[in-house]
Amino acid sequence: AVLSGTLGAVIRAKAWTLHRGKKCGFKEDTTAPAGVDYDMWLGPAPERPFTPNRFHYNWHWFWDYGTGELGNWGVHMLDIARWGLGVELPTRVSASGGKLYFRDDQQTPDTHLVHYTFPGKTITWEHRLWSTHGIEGRSAAAAFYGENGTLVVDRGGWKVYDSSDAKAVDGGGQPAAHHRNFIDCVKSRKRPVADIEVGHVTSTLCHLGNIAYRLDRAIAFDPETNSFGPDREAAQLLGREYRKQWELPAV
Q1: Residue of 152, 132, 111 whose CA lies nearest to 13
Q2: What's CA 31's distance to the chain center, in Å?
Q3: d(Cα 59, Cα 51) in Å, to the nearest integer?
Q4: pLDDT in tens, 27-83
Q5: Distance CA 191, CA 195 (A)
Q6: pLDDT value of position 141
Q7: For labelling alongside 98, which of 55, 106, 124, 180 has CA 20 to 30 A away?
Q8: pTM (predicted TM-score)
Q9: Which among 120, 123, 133, 119 has a CA at the least distance from the CA of 70?
Q10: Helix/strand/coil (H/E/C) assignment for every residue in the chain
């Protein structure tokens, strides 16, 4: 509907996830479980005492290892929004939100809104980890707002609203199609529908949203050079200081 022109001019998309997350509480430092090579698990991340709150799954919510819900769910929904809108990397990113609900060890925001500016188009991301009333009636999805209608896409399918020829399609077979495409490409050595370069661009959107949030200000990005230009403060968050003996080799 977006690419075919059915919706007319589409200049805005939104992606989101809203659900009730779990509090992890406050945990004391302890020793790693038997059989766990904690040094290997840390890899290049800073050396810290072991705590269960930074281990299985909860590592998502700490900046040393994870990217919060934006990198967890956002990468999936933003990929749909970016693909449908036909954009690559943004020129400006702003963010707001914070850890407003959870009172625990988590560092990443439970409430996060990110605005991405592209030439002539915009994408907005939102997540709320303490609410169950979804946007457009869906807990995790992407929506395209056009002059002739609105298209909403989630893992269950898609539906067009406000159009004279509104349609709906069940998308329950999407995971199987992706798996089939990947297996076929392993055999044929062809590029999959969503290859590593596609993943890189969408992942970059997540990183940029987190950088804007952590700096608490808008950031300008140059898609041509993949850099922040003279903004050294933002540039420092594009990488990390690797733990000794885990540094990346110079190429």
Answers
A1: 152
A2: 32
A3: 10
A4: 999 999 999 999 999 999 999 999 999 999 999 999 999 999 999 999 999 999 999
A5: 6
A6: 96
A7: 55
A8: 0.91
A9: 123
A10: CCCCCCCCCEEEEEEEEECECCCCCCCCCECCCCCCCHHHHHCCCCCCCECHHHCCCHHHHCCCCCCHHHHHHHHHHHHHHHHHHCCCCCCEEEEEEECCCCCCCCCCCCEEEEEEEECCEEEEEEEECECCCCECCECEEEEEEECCEEEEEECCEEEEECCCCCCEEECCCHHHHHHHHHHHHHHHCCCCCCCHHHHHHHHHHHHHHHHHHHHCCCEECECCCCECCCCHHHHHCCCCCCCCCCCCCCC
Match 């509480």 to its residue by tokens: 25
- Provide the residue type at 187 as one letter: K
Contact 2, 85 (CB under 8 A): yes
- 59: which 2 tokens? 């590592």
